[in-house]
């Protein structure tokens, strides 16, 4: 299997839609999850374009007695 322009575009689209590497590999066929992850890294797509979940705010400190 080779990474044709069409397959790379499909990978980019699905990655930006939030699909998992496993889902992308299944859709493309002929590639593994690890191959998708490697290609994502080489394309510089490692950071999703969506909003990352924000950490919960810290609990307020208890008043000193």
UniProtKB/TrEMBL annotation:
Superkingdom of origin organism: Bacteria
Pfam families: GcrA (PF07750)
Protein name from the UniProt record: GcrA cell cycle regulator
Gene3D superfamilies: Homeodomain-like
InterPro entries: GcrA
């Amino acid at each position: 299997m080779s990474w044709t322009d069409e397959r790379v575009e499909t990978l980019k689209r699905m990655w930006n839609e939030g699909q998992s590497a496993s889902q992308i590999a299944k859709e493309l066929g002929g590639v593994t999850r690890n191959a998708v992850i490697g290609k994502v890294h080489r394309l510089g797509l490692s950071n999703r374009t969506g909003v990352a979940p924000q950490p919960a705010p810290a609990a307020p400190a208890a008043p000193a007695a």
